Amino acid sequence: MTSKDIKPTDTGDEENIMNDLEFQKLNIIKKNSFKESTSSPNSFENEIKTSLNNNNEFVSCEHFLFGKTPTEIQNKISSLKFNNKYKTTSNLLSIPTKTNSYAKKQRTQSIPATLKSETISTFPNESRKETDLCLDTPFSEQVVQQLKEQNIKYTIFNYKLIIICIAFIAAMGPLAGNIYIPAIPLLEKNLKLSRETMDGSISLFMAVFCVFPLVWGVLCDRFGRKIILLFGLILSILANALLARLGQLCDKNILAQLYCYRVIQGIAASCFISCGCAMIRDLVPVNQRATYMGYFFLGPNIAPVIAPIVAGIILSAGKNGNGNGDVHWRWLFLILVILNCIGLGITIIILPETCRSLVGNGDPIWAIGLKKLNTLTPEETKLFFRTRMKIHLGGILKPISESSKFLELYEKPPTISLRNYIKVLKMKYILLVSVSVGLQFSLYYAFVVTLSHELKDNYGFKNMGMAAGYVVPGSGLIIGTLTSGRISDKFMKKWIKEDKVIYPEKRLIFQLIGIYTSCIGGIMYGWFLQFHVSVVAVFISSFFVGIGLTWATNSSTTYASLIAKAQTGTAVSIMNAIRNAGAAISSGIA
């Protein structure tokens, strides 16, 4: 049956038929999204394929419901396979944005009552809005599944505010690692330790910072994002408070205390980026994910630049005779305590649990069987409000609903096992982009460690001048963060219009641009220092290093979130571990 077979009820409905042809672009079924079921295929699938070939791109779900009895529809729906998982086309039916009388009448007549009720109740709270829940642009199968899963917007909070908050929290990790470095000479003097032992504390922190993201990623995929963030922030507050009182609580075994506290600090700091990237995946649709991933990385990318500036200001105040130098280096860790306390308050008050395998789209109505609120019993009302409180406070150990619809839309949380972890490690594409990002971080940290020394030795900069020298690469990080995601999403939308199939790997084009830009900046930086070129040229090269890093990082992380699905936290933690390892090795060599 084609659209030509639809007959108007009277001549006045001919115009409505033309309008309804536009409506065919709603509730589409992507040609490559349907595969033959393992059960015996029937003529219904062939009819879909034939119509897809005739129409080239799109065909309406409702088009195939005309003239079918409810029994025929349900039998034919069960024979379809969507993205290698059995799905019902009722999930693809949605309340349309167009409301012309003919289209509305045909939809009402053609869909059986059972499917109508499923269509309305499948997505909580979204049925109250006239929103198209289907895709109107073709994608590859992986992206279709992601879009289908992500297109339901959270209904109980503003995800833009949440992204700002998690970007702030994610900055705590790199800030803890880099604010410590300028204070090393002062710590050597006050704690009476050698330079080698102080360098060992840096290497120990970076080693822990490399390994433990692998643990945090698995935990946040299983137990949720918020509870892991809370635990990490509390642990970070404890570690920084102990470092601020180093040598005061106990004056024995100072070196052992320093190493122990730095290990705890590194363990805590390594969880923030993994949880933050996983929350971005939970919140943001695919067609906007690169943009918001860029906003998120503004925090952790700018932290290594801000840290030396803050440390320089605090330490310079102590050297200028305004106070005791011993007190001032302790303030470096007290500032971290204050910032982590702010992050803890933000997490408790603002951030809800977002892990989709546990809370779905964040609507507690799942827990009461998708019933209307005005029909609930007292026990169901208590369950509704108790579930809403759990979503806000976190600590959910199992999905809020065991219904088939919930499990159909959201995969179960992965079990913590070596097998599941190896499954992610065996994704060669994840490893490939992780290694490339690790090399970029190696270049960037080699640049960060050497810049202050080169400005002092070759160009005669003082403490405040060296701190201000990080403003230029910091500007590159900010500009790259704000532009990379927007440009990536813009080009993806353009390519979608031009091509019938767009694969997630096209995101990696922008990673290559970032890699080339960063490498060119690094080569320029080395040459300019070797031949003592003007400091302006050095700053220009540092700008390219910063902007290239953000383009590469943003694109690769967005790509990982597309292909890792329910184990985004694990995939991002692998990427973080490799890039932190690269940063540790390069900073040690430099």
From TrEMBL:
Which PROSITE patterns does this one have? MFS
Supply the Pfam families for this chain.
Answer: MFS_1
Protein location: Membrane
Q: Which InterPro entries match?
A: MFS, MFS_dom, MFS_trans_sf
Q: Which residues cross the membrane?
A: 161-181, 201-220, 227-247, 259-280, 292-317, 329-351, 429-447, 467-487, 508-528, 534-552
Which keywords does the record carry? Membrane, Transmembrane, Transmembrane helix
Cellular compartments per GO CC: plasma membrane
> What positions does the domain Major facilitator superfamily (MFS) profile occupy?
162-590
Name the SUPFAM superfamilies for this protein.
MFS general substrate transporter (SSF103473)
Instruction: Extract the Gene3D superfamilies matched here.
Output: MFS general substrate transporter like domains
UniProt key word Protein transport: no
Q: What GO annotations for molecular function exist for this entry? A: amine transmembrane transporter activity
What is the membrane topology here? Multi-pass membrane protein
Instruction: Specify the protein name.
Output: MFS general substrate transporter
